[in-house]
Amino acid sequence: MVSDIIIPKNNETEFAEIASKLGYKKLYFLYDFDGYNEEKIQKKFEAIENKKINIETGFLVNQKNLGKAAKKSRFLVVKSSEKDRFFIESKKIKLIYGFEELYKKDYLHQRASGLNHVLCELARKNKVEVGFSYSSIINSKNNALLMGRIMQNLGLCRKYKVNIAVASFSSNPFDLRHHHDIASLFKLLGTDAKNNF
Fold first, then answer.
1. CA-to-CA distance for 173 and 21, rounded, in angstroms?
2. CA dihedral 135, 158, 183, 112 (to 10 degrees)
3. Beta strands 95-97 and 76-79: pairing type?
4. Cβ atoms of residues 173 and 29 within 8 Å
5. Confidence bin at 89 (pLDDT 50/70/90)
6. Which backbone phi and psi does 137 adopt, to 5 degrees?
7. How many angstroms separate the Cα of 86 from the Cα of each of 63, 93, 114, 126, 132?
8. Which of the 8 DSSP states describes residue 52?
9. Which of 47, 60, 112, 185 could be disulfide-bonded to 104 (CB atoms 3.0-4.6 Å)?
């Protein structure tokens, strides 16, 4: 099933319209757990029901609200930060993304891609998927650096058999792309881009 993970900013209807035209069958809307209002979101979903797209929700969490969010949803997502190991070891999150977006200076013989063999082994052991954002490539000011880091991280995930997810993680509906275009891009970067979330 063709699906995508997005972070809407009061534009759920626009996402659903564009996604249906691009052939998506399922959208995962991620909301910040602290600002989540279930009644307000349900009203928005009622307007989307006729778009022939399945909708699921999940939460973007942080260290403070992880425990509370785990009681409300099983689809918890974290953007990479200095606390990556804590989140992966917690076994409560489903997916962590954005490793390559942490802007550190690259080392002499390897890229500072945010991911390493220790995190990969923990992710495989705890069944945490590593996410790759194609909208970060679209909106990057330094595509060569970002794509090099993605290639390195994809190689690590392949080597340590970590499940990956390729999605937009975008707040802008116009960042959505046809799934064949995404598959082609990530095939060039070193994977078959099967999103299995």
1. 12
2. 30
3. parallel
4. no
5. very high
6. -70, -45
7. 8, 10, 14, 12, 20
8. S
9. 112
Task: For residues 71 and 75, give the distance between their C-alpha atoms in angstroms, rounded to a whole number.
Answer: 11
Query: Which residues, in sequence order, are bridge partners of residue 57?
Result: 29
Helix extents (H) in the chain: 12-21, 38-48, 66-72, 84-90, 117-125, 134-138, 143-159, 179-189
Tokens of 118: 């220790």
Give me the residues paired with residue 132 across strands: 166
Q: pLDDT for 98-142, tens place per residue? A: 998 876 666 666 677 889 999 999 999 999 999 999 999 999 888
By C-alpha distance, which of 103, 107, 66 is closest to 81? 103
Residue 101 backbone phi and psi in degrees, to 5: -85, -10
Q: Residue count of the chain, please give it.
A: 197
CA distance 162 to 180: 23
Q: Are 58 and 30 in contact (CB under 8 A)?
A: yes
